[in-house]
């Protein structure tokens, strides 16, 4: 599929996709005889994972580290696991913080609903 189709499918702009390719987050993108990018289903899967990492607040620098480790193949499995486990720990902490913030907001809203705040 071309960049326009791929962009639409994965929900990222063509500018972002070109940037990801430039920094090494997207690699080995095939080109057709006219030189236009041609994306495959493996690229859809990969970008889906990258988006998930970004949406869970993993910094782009860490995603790039993961990407480089991924390129090393099986020899980097433990390192990738450790990186993802650290991210999981950070995400759990962030979720707990957000739950605490939500509870505080709900408490304040209930005060307003019960007419106890002027």
TrEMBL record:
Keywords: Coiled coil, DNA-binding
InterPro entries in alphabetical order: DNA-bd_dom_put_sf (IPR009061), MerR-type_HTH_dom (IPR000551), MerR_fam (IPR047057)
Coiled coil: 88-115
GO molecular function, one term: DNA-binding transcription factor activity
Classification via Gene3D superfamilies: 1.10.1660.10
One Pfam family of this chain: MerR_1
Domain HTH merR-type: 1-69
Protein name: MerR family transcriptional regulator
Annotated source species: Photobacterium carnosum
Record lineage: Bacteria, Pseudomonadati, Pseudomonadota, Gammaproteobacteria, Vibrionales
């Amino acid at each position: 599929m071309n960049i326009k189709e791929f962009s639409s499918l994965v929900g990222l702009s063509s500018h972002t996709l070109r940037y990801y390719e430039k920094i090494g987050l997207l690699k080995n993108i095939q080109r057709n005889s006219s030189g236009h990018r041609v994306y495959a289903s493996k690229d859809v899967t990969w970008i889906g994972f990258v988006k998930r990492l970004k949406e869970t607040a993993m910094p782009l620098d860490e995603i790039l580290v993961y990407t480089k480790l991924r390129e090393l193949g099986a020899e980097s499995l433990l390192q990738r696991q450790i990186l993802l486990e650290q991210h999981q720990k950070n995400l759990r902490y962030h979720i707990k913080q957000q739950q605490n913030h939500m509870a505080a907001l709900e408490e304040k809203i209930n005060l307003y609903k019960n007419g106890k705040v002027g």
